[in-house]
Amino acid sequence: MEQPSSHLKIRRANGVSVVEFADRKILEELSIQEIGEELRQLVESEAGIKLLLNFKNVDHLSSAALGMLITLNKKIKEHNGKLKLSDINRQIFEVFKITRLNRVFDIHETSQQALAGFQS
Predict the structure, then answer these.
(1) Using one digit for the tens of pLDDT, what is the confidence trace for 83-114?
(2) Going edge to edge, which strands form the sheet with 82-86?
(3) Domain locations in the chain?
(4) DSSP label of 3
(5) Which conformational region is residue 6 in: left (phi greater than 0), alpha (psi within -120 to 50 degrees), or beta?
(6) 0.85 exceeded by the pTM?
(7) Which CATH number fits domain 8-119: 3.40.50.2300, 3.30.750.24, 3.30.2350.10, 3.30.420.40?
(8) In 7, 8, 56, 76, which residue has its Cα 20 to 30 A from 27's Cα atom?
C-alpha cells in the first residue's frame, strides 16, 4: 500500500509507517520544506504514530535537513509517537555524531532492527 509522493515512499509494516526517501541528496531548501511538510501531515494524521525513516537511498543530507528532522522529532513527541532512523550511511552518521544528534535520535543499522525495536 504505497502512497504516491514526490520525495517519499511510505508503506506500512506491523503498524509502523516506514518512509524511504526518493532523493539521493536532501540538500535543497525547497525539497527539505516539502519533505518536512509531507512528514508533518503524516504525523498529524495518526496519533501515537510509529515512524521509521529509512535513509538507505540517501547519500547527502544538509544541515537544514537535520533541522527538519529535529522539528519532526519534537512534533512526533507532542503526538505521543515514536521515531526511529535506520540505514544511515557512514558519512551522514559521522555528521550525526559530530552534532551529537546520534544521542537525540533512536538510530538503528537496519530497518529490520528498527522495526523490531517498535515491538519491544
Answers:
(1) 999 999 999 999 999 999 999 999 999 999 99
(2) 8-13, 16-21, 50-54, 82-86, 106-108
(3) 8-119
(4) B
(5) alpha
(6) yes
(7) 3.30.750.24
(8) 76
